[in-house]
Amino acid sequence: MKKIICLSIIIIIVSVCLCGCSNNIEEGELSKIYKIPQKLIYINVPKSYEETQNGYSKIYFIKSKLYIAVTAEMSMEATVFSKLKDNVKEFTYINDLKIEQEKTEMINEIEMYRYEGTLICGRTVKFNTYVVGYTFIIDKIPCNITGVVTEANQQEETIKEIRRIVDEMATTVRKTKNKID
Fold first, then answer.
1. For the CA atoms of the chain, what is the radius of gyration?
2. What is the β-pairing status of strands 94-107 and 66-72?
3. pLDDT tens, 36-56?
């Protein structure tokens, strides 16, 4: 009996390590589920970030470092650029968006447009800030996930972090509360 219990414990430990010791989206950083108000659109979001609401956008952030906005708006005829301006106006003025990489891909049977580039910011003192995002339509509702690095020195480590988180968030977009298999 003791051998069976020990063997069971070893199997459980190995199973947990094989299934849950990685940087798993469901178990770790993106374990909180955000539901777009009055819509059947769900997305996993950063659990440890502060959050606020700005109109149709839910914003997750680490102050003075990075911001991620999730926007879904039926009447949204605005461009990605104008939504970015609205969502980051608290920390800077945006002059222009320079898209450096872009592609269209299918994620969870949803066609998504992914863009990555630079925001040219500031009224008098100009500076650049990294941006990455996805735009997509679910049930005729335009949606957007946008990540912006706001720290002044634009460290490569922070850029990689926001890129990874926004990319992972895009993989969790769905029409049901249940996680994606």
1. 19
2. unpaired
3. 887 889 999 999 898 888 777
